[in-house]
Design goal:
homotetramer, alpha/beta, Rossmann fold, four-stranded antiparallel beta sheet, 8 helices, 13 strands
Chain lengths: ~300, ~300, ~300, ~300
């Protein structure tokens, strides 16, 4: 059956997505595609990558499981022998499973609105189940979109208690992904560890240029002709995590710091939304401090 | 007094903006700048352009009037002799005067949200005083932003009555600029005439490629590798008005029409907002079927 | 053995590249990858695409044949049963086989220089074996790069004779690809038929905007804010062939036609070179009037 | 008389270009434009900029001197009183005066070819009078374009002697601008001082990211999604001089260091050529460690 051209994500067939990395040897693709064919799956999309330095092979394969002869719950077990044979580090995702998203904010609303609107339009999949603010300012936005808002103030003295509360909220809401939408607080190593490769931040510069605070002021001082924004997974090292997406915009001597901040808002919105979308579509593999993005 | 670097539009000094076109002769800049200096104005920004084909000179000059020795109400009269001497077609705008904006919509909300949010943030100046929809769907958005919404249905039979009602609403609200934010109706020549160079539309293609209906479908059929969006002033000829701003994004064979529509939404938002901002900052001169944009 | 990171194309292993289209059914990838594994090949890169409208499946797979147990000359025959089973339209290319390129020019040299320099640097693979000019002006360039140059004048009366001579030169030089590097002549349908999907042209506009002659003049007249260039396969319909690559650059009211021509030269160079490179790397499948580009 | 639309630089009228910076007070534009009008000049282009932090005003004004009643040789003296009145730091350039350019190279030829070809086409004005290489490899390129080539080897021991020789060559050739076209040597502070704001370098990264050696390797290690190139004036601090122009290109996990180097070559070419063109058109003012580029 042919898919209608104007069909949206929502009417697509049920799909499984396998992502893995393993030592690069012959026969991996043959075995994986044979597995899918054996149970009557139809491959919709497949991407590979080899890292010649470390001899590592990466693959993402997405297949139609609407006629698959294995139920979702048994696919992983059936695949296990292949994973073992090739020493794969793997995971299997299902389009039927809706990702649950929490957004952390402070006072700036541009990234928050962007995520909410794209989610509403279906561009960003998943369900935004929780908004946490260290300030109460953005509660009305959450209300308008009918999403629970929690005000969790953070001070140097209360940081660990605040994080404990946040982790509890995330856990109870069964959250898969945390998005820092211009959230102006640093997360502790234990928070990062709990949500390893599941916390996405937007940094308002073209990293690694202008790490740390006030990057637009730094860019203004240096007199650059292009400014950027960078979306990355959060690690223990500030602004050093694996980069998911970046983009840039031109500036001139006419642009004040205020102008750069305004131009940068567009970038921040776009770059963060793209990164979140890629993550939720299960298109990213993290390898060392880099990402492999199978677009 | 020096302006603070992080200062926003709102704290800028009072400014006057003179825009004109006239036959290109010597001495125009000297006379205009002397006029400003005579009354103790400080030129903040000045742009010129000459069209060699028609021998026409264009200029935009923006000056600080906080110490100007003429009140705003008398500047135009004082300038009149210079305008006559050089046969100028001119206008003078003041930063103290807030532009009044009406937005026309149908069912799609992405451009509407974008305009409302950028206006709220101060990126787009002016006051949005009115939203008119030929469908009632976007009334809740207007409500959330506390802007009056009027549902004016349009059918082939009622078109002229509907336009009469719209024109009445615009007139009563003293509207300066009409923005068609993916408004799916064609305006009559008399409407266009009434708001000549004051109605901005967003067309969802890189004009003049793909005029008319369903441009993304047309782009898909042709197999282009880049799609675009175009913001222009509305004239009697559909999709033929003076272009204000355009931008593009890459597509590949992987992109369905639905994907192009989604990618295009970002473009439409950005391109329309940029055009509206340029208009409201009085940076556009229309000349024939082209625009001179003094960025 | 790991490949050195700064390794160039020249030291890459011998590779085979299979390209095909066929009706979309289950099991294609499994069978193809099993074939490669059976003869001890290592898949380096694989791309698929499904066209939902026509139910067509497309694939490109590139594999290391340095330890393949079939010689190059026998691979196609061994693959034949699979091709028949799935009703594939296919071809197999080998990295060991150097493509032979002819460039057609008139008087403009910017695209010619660009192709010659990129070829010399190894960015564009293959061997440029022939340059044909309908004017003699660019012979010194050909001489500098030690490539045979043939002056084949074309007039309305001598067109068919000129083409016969060109076809003879191409045939004797065993040419695989003809690049029209701003060649200002139209090829006859029989020429196009002989080199179907093997003649690449650069059109100096963002097609389908501004087909035909003097596109920069047309763009100037329309007052567009962005100009483009388009590389496409040549078909019987002027400027209507399958698009391979496009790119754009911003222009303003300050840009005269002469400025647009100058800005456009950069685009033409880049877009033509990218298209030629993609073709020579066997990354393009033509389907109807579109291209599938497996980057 | 109207200028033909397809007219090139070469047929433009004689022009004078005044560039200055001074404390920002009222009346500067009026006085400068009056000066030009007094002697029967026609302003073709004028740009201003104010730096609010330091209260500095910058201006570039270009005027037609074909009917100017002062000869070129007397313009500067006549302008002197105005310059003194406003404490201007100024210079006056003339389109009749051809800039003399030296290019320094090592072994890479892509930037050299680009500059030579654009100069030949008239895109980059001026005369390239000298090519100096610390290796002899690119002499044939210089020969092809009929430009004197000097091989000046540089070793740690002979550096100062080599520079003395270079300075002598530059001085004898009356050179105005030195372009480092991927020249792999550091210039001494005294060389920099002699040609202050007249030595343009291309750095193969998006500065200030990846200063120093092997920026593409650094970018590869960090896993950035965008690489860049930066053209700047050379100062005593390596890679820290005033930035003139920057541009970027996307990379993915598929790009090896070799791929980045290849993609980067395009950027380097474009960015260096644009910077050189801007300099030679007298469109750049250096202020502190930044540039004001009046495009």
């Amino acid at each position: 059956m042919l898919i209608d051209r104007t069909d949206s994500n929502f009417s697509r067939p049920s799909r499984a997505i396998l992502l893995f990395s393993c030592p690069d040897v012959k026969g991996i693709v043959a075995e994986v595609s044979h597995f899918i064919f054996t149970y009557n799956g139809n491959i919709l999309r497949s991407n590979q990558h080899s890292d010649p330095e470390t001899g590592t092979f990466f693959m993402r394969v997405e297949w139609d499981i609407s006629e698959f002869t294995l139920p979702e719950s048994k696919i992983s077990r059936a695949f296990e022998p292949i994973a073992e044979k090739f020493s794969m580090d793997y995971r299997i995702e299902f389009s039927s499973r809706t990702s649950r998203i929490a957004i952390f904010v402070s006072k700036l609303d541009h990234c928050l609105y962007d995520l909410l609107l794209r989610n509403k339009e279906g561009e960003i999949p998943g369900e935004i189940v929780l908004i946490i603010g260290n300030h109460p300012d953005l509660k009305p936005v959450a209300d308008y979109f009918h999403i629970p808002f929690h005000h969790v103030p953070v001070t140097p003295e209360t940081r660990m208690d605040a994080e404990a509360l946040e982790l509890d909220l995330l856990s109870k809401a069964n959250v898969d992904l945390v998005v820092l939408a211009r959230y102006m607080q640093i997360l502790s190593p234990s928070f990062v560890e709990t949500y390893r490769n599941r916390v996405i931040n937007i940094h308002h510069s073209f990293l690694p240029a202008f790490v740390g605070a006030k990057p637009y002021h730094q860019a203004f001082e240096r007199g650059v002709k292009i400014i950027g924004a960078t979306s990355h997974y959060v690690t223990e090292d500030l602004d050093q995590g694996p980069i998911i997406e970046q983009d840039v915009v031109r500036v001139t001597h006419q642009d004040s710091v205020a102008d750069m901040i305004q131009k940068g808002k567009n970038l921040e919105r776009l770059v963060l939304s793209r990164a979140v979308k890629l993550h939720l579509e299960h298109k990213i593999l993290v390898f060392g401090n880099k990402t492999i993005v199978f677009e």
